[in-house]
TrEMBL record:
Top-level taxonomic group: Eukaryota
Family indicated by similarity: Belongs to the mis12 family.
Keywords annotated in UniProt: Cell cycle, Cell division, Centromere, Chromosome, Coiled coil, Kinetochore, Mitosis
GO biological process, one term: cell division
Coiled coil regions, renumbered to chain: 160-187
GO CC entries: MIS12/MIND type complex; nucleus
Organism: Apaloderma vittatum
Location relative to the cell: Chromosome, Centromere, Kinetochore
Name of the protein described by the UniProt record: Protein MIS12 homolog
Length: 191
């Protein structure tokens, strides 16, 4: 309230000085032989404004004290509408501090829960990626099982055993072919 009053008085002071300056300029325009120019009038107006502002600040300080003591002071026996909650629910400084501590603790719990929620969301995203990979592996095993059924094996274990036996046979055939190839190369070298 006091700041608004101060600004209003100050604005009025500035406006008044502009009016005084324009009146002086009009009066001087009637005297063409005058040696005082608009620049000198502006400097003089600014000096006078500075002088008035310093005195105004001193006076406003005194006025502020009087306003705070006599006009804007609310007696202790007066209860404002916004203070009715304090009347209905009085509290001590210890109770207030206990509430502040509880608020601080609840804020920390909220932060911890938010962090935990973010961690759980990140873990869920990771699990979705792993689940997608597992689904690909299951599809691959289903494809293997379908191929094994087409070749006459009924269960996956039997199919896997069948594939293992076939792999071993292929390895033996590969070794056999490599040995024969080496023999053929040796025979070709001697010939």
């Amino acid at each position: 309230c006091l700041l608004r009053i101060y600004i209003a008085f100050q604005d009025y002071l500035f406006e008044m000085m502009l009016v005084v300056e324009s009146v002086i300029l009009k009066k001087l325009s009637g005297f063409p032989d005058s040696k005082i120019g608009p620049l000198q009038i502006r400097k003089s107006t600014e000096k006078f404004l500075l002088f008035l502002k310093e005195h105004f600040d001193q006076l406003f300080g005194k006025m502020e004290e009087v306003l705070l003591q006599l006009v804007l002071n609310i007696p202790r026996n007066v209860l404002l509408p916004e203070d009715k909650a304090h009347e209905q629910h009085p509290y001590s400084q210890e109770q207030f501090q206990a509430l502040q501590d509880e608020i601080h603790q609840l804020q920390q719990q909220c932060r911890a829960e938010v962090a935990a929620g973010q961690a759980l969301r990140a873990e869920l995203e990771e699990k979705k990626g792993v689940q997608a990979e597992l689904e690909k592996i299951v599809q691959w095993f289903d494809g293997l099982e379908n191929i094994c059924r087409e070749h006459g094996t009924s269960s996956f274990k039997e199919s896997f055993a069948f594939l293992t036996q076939n792999a071993k046979r292929l390895q033996e055939v590969l070794k056999d072919v490599e040995e024969k190839s080496k023999k053929i190369k040796k025979h070709d070298q001697f010939v």
